[in-house]
Amino acid sequence: IAGITQAPTSQILAAGRRMTLRCTQDMRHNAMYWYRQDLGLGLRLIHYSNTAGTTGKGEVPDGYSVSRANTDDFPLTLASAVPSQTSVYFCASSDSAESSSYNEQFFGPGTRLTVL
Amino acid sequence: GQNIDQPTEMTATEGAIVQINCTYQTSGFNGLFWYQQHAGEAPTFLSYNVLDGLEEKGRFSSFLSRSKGYSYLLLKELQMKDSASYLCAAIDSNYQLIWGAGTKLIIKP
Asked: Is the pLDDT of residue A1 over 80?
């Protein structure tokens, strides 16, 4: 693989179910991010990881959890999905947590999640 | 609070020039990104500005004024494939990206 991949591409989920969105990058980037994108609201940061073994909360972390056991993988888990979590989810990575001209974020193709 | 403002939607004609504005209010400032996002796809990097002035890259240019908290993206010789959303994002003092809601650009023949 080259770049950053996400799975699944799309998913319809019943409310109350548990769901894990997968994200893998092969660029050896230290920092990884999860965003949700909703119409009219732009990208909102859910959780981030500056390096393997560490995670942090973003703007909208409630109802979501993440782990970063290694450099490449950064799964996002919805413990008990609710309809308000219907959104497009993007995973991103950057070489460093410090955004700069050499550290732009690279995005995965996204996961479209519908919670009924 | 931190805030990024950009127009929701703009329309332009193929072959013309369009300027998409972005104003920002952040706690500290460490630069500004512009990303392009086609419908149903991921955002892709267009430009980065940290110093005042104009950065030119082919048909696309990006301008920054730190004193005014203002940036714009200039697209020249518009092509139909430029129809997309353009996202402005400022880097705050904690090196977190603060994203605008995006400007949907519609190109008409």
From this structure: no
